[in-house]
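Q: Convert this sequence to structure tokens.
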Amino acid sequence: MRCAPNSALVSTLCGQSVYNDSMGNRVIHISATEAASDFAALLDHVRAGDEVVIEHDARPVAVLRPAAPAPSLDKTFAAIAQDVPDEEWERVPRDLAKNLDHYLYGTSKVTS
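A:
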């Protein structure tokens, strides 16, 4: 493994006794054997923002990186709504929320 100085993962796998609280935004190269020995530590680094390259015979076989944050539903719906022309919004029934089952399935309208 190419050890990044004082990382928590490296301190476990490279025998260093120093813990680095400032994990994140680094690329850590590690062998598949070492990755299997402490996968939980790898995930800690990924959660902190590090990218982990797992190698076999010094060739990359897998890359672990933080997932891109998913946009919130309200922002997604707001973005979609912006693209709908005003004249289409005017066609939406004013009682849609109250009578959704009526408009979807033909049930009786709620009148109160």
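Residues 8-64 form a domain with the YefM-like fold fold (CATH 3.40.1620).
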